[in-house]
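User: Hi! Is it possible to get a structure for several chains at once, not just one? Here's what I have:
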Amino acid sequence: MREIAEAAREAAALVAGADPALAGIVVLSLQVSLSAVCAATLVALPLGALLAVGRFPGRRALIVLLNAFMGLPPVVVGLLVYLVLSRAGPLGELGLLFTPGAMVIAQTLLVLPIIAALCRQAVEDAWREYAEQLRSLGASDARAALTLVWDTRFSLVTAVLAGLGRALSEVGAVLIVGGNIDGVTRVMTTAIALETSKGDLALALALGFILIALVTLLNAAAQVVKEAAERRYG
Amino acid sequence: MANDGRILPLVLREVGFRAGGRTILAGISATIEAGPATIILGANGAGKSVLMRLMHGLLAPTTGEVSWNGLSSEAARRRQAMVFQRPVLLRRSALANVTYALALAGVAAAGREALALEALREVGLAGVAHRPARVLSGGEQQRLALARAWALHPEVLFLDEPTANLDPGATREIETVIRAFDAAGTKIIMSTHNLAQARRLGDEVLYLHEGRLAERAPVEEFFRRPASAEAAAFLKGELPWA
Amino acid sequence: MGVIAGAVLALLLVAPVRAEERFITVASTTSTEQSGLFRHLLPLFEKKAGIQVRVVALGTGQALDLGRRGDADVVLVHAPELEEKFVAEGWGVRRHPVMYNDFVVLGPKSDPARIAGTKDAAEAFRKIRAARAPFVSRADRSGTHLAELELWRAAGIDIAREKGPWYRETGSGMGPALNTASALNAYLLADRGTWLAFRNRGELAILVEGDPRLFNQYGAILVNPARHPHVKEAWGRQFIEWLVSPQGQTAIAAYRIAGEQLFFPNAAR
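Assistant: Yes, the chains can be modeled jointly so their relative placement is included. Here is the combined structure:
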């Protein structure tokens, strides 16, 4: 229990001291997870929307699969990506293993189903309201899907934030494909894992507090932006 | 055959619709010509909404045929517009809602805004062009839906109980716009529960009873001397003083 | 809205500019990383050679696996038999002894198996088994795990058959195993380096040390370029040569925790 108090003090000291190693770790965490979320969103939003609007054979199976993949174990995703990017694997030539690029790839795969599944749900709910009018105006399924993605954008912010939260907090995938290399692929979660295994629990916890604060800050900022936009656009 | 692009007359041949094991419409046959404003009347569950959607192409008939002057239903739909009981508007400005419809209709980007503004002016909403559509009042939203239809200059305008959710003031505004459509030559096909409104706006009545076309007559004749027993009973029930 | 997009974009573009072109990947063990040796050693080499050394710290088994797959240029582990096999099978070029540290037998200060001060590590293990005292094993094919198994063999105990609830297999690195032993007040074989750097000791203390059987030899191997042409042969060789050079060996000896030397250089002359 005294570790928690000690950790709180250490967290404050780390942040106040603007420790460059810590700054590097935080920046890398944000870079990797934000990149992954951006990449995932680009694919997940159209995918989820088309799944919501379209009617084709296998649609229900695809929805079940997408929902199930929301809970993909990060360590399994990491292992699969590792096997693909390893020199002994099909894409070894790219030399991506143990780089931030590999971490982005792994997290993108992890986060994509979450954003897509939540997008599908939001768009499907809206589709019930909009379907007749949009079809009356002559919108194709693809056009309707895009229109609904923009119209449900406030709900979709929540979906994207869910993906970002998952990316910033996972350790299994980035540990395997990144290798937790000091100064190169060490992010907040892998640093916490390392300090824990070294027995430096106070430092690990301090990093944990900083991570939680960071995620909370991001969510607060998103909420402010969302509310301002909602006021403007109804 | 259609070689002048006009989609009327609309011919319904023994049109029927089944869903969920129930027969909602059966044996509907009629030819709808350009000109008179057509009002569809009937009790709740008589099939008015389904009939409108079958005509507009949002539903496919289970039996029978819906034929627009020999054109494909896709080609015909482009010359129609529909306004629903609750206006469905996008989360953007009033103007953007109209330009969206114009974009879907294939109008070049350069001309969309001007056409949209003209439509808004027609319904008296030019002042709120840049307001978010969703913050407008119920009456304004329905007028916006009509402006959106107006910008498309449709040959046929379907209206499914357009003033059911509006107060008398807003209802009057909507009726003014509908009359403007009518005066501009747009064919009106409208369902309503408001019999006084039917008398105000309509030229002919299609009366549905339990999924069948029970009667078709010019509006005044329908109200004063209904030919069918069902229509008479309906009117008696709706107008206790008749 | 635009301000935020700009901020995100700026953030994404900031650091990747420093993508190093001159680097090698070294697969090593958790004990070398967690003891802090690399933090001390690598900057010296990087400054001299201008080559960044990226260390992926895993258990010995996994580190050698990385070498076999060609995902590392150099392997630095402490399991001489496995290393020889690695070279014999053609995955590595040659094994270079670099340094040694030693293992220690840790246990709770209360010492229920009464092993404190025992000179013979195998004898200590016999006592632990007899007392059925809680014992934590890494059970992860690491050099430490293999050394532990060797001690059970030396004690005449077939641990696979004779283990019971007292024998806890964590399947983890040195640090997590230490955490577990600390929490359970259990006996544990650990390398001195990780122990000295470990902060969560609880009731644990060194009970047995100095037995030559607790010797822990580290070797560096260049992954065979004949097997994996993409291996950075020149830079990898440079690193290994530096490790066994007088400068590298001195640097290794100079690393201390609380005044105590952890690793003892012994590269073959």
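The radius of gyration of chain A is 20 Å. DSSP finds ten helices and no strands in chain A.

User: Great, thank you!
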